[in-house]
Prior knowledge:
Elements: E1 3-8, E2 14-17, H1 21-26, H2 29-36, E3 43-47
Antiparallel strand pairs: 1-2, 1-3
Amino acid sequence: MAQKIVFINDDNSIGIITPTAEWLESHTMEELAAKDVPAGKTYHIVDESEIPTDRTFRNAWEWA
């Protein structure tokens, strides 16, 4: 299952980080989060199936 990193930006939008296959060959999702999630932000590593694919109302997405 493909995973993504989800976090809330300062403007309350949702940030989504998608790792590359090359990254995952030699690193973990936790290492990617430590590198790319803004300092002090809480993040969640989720299966990509948990993220809506319809971007029509993307600005209304919420993550609890």
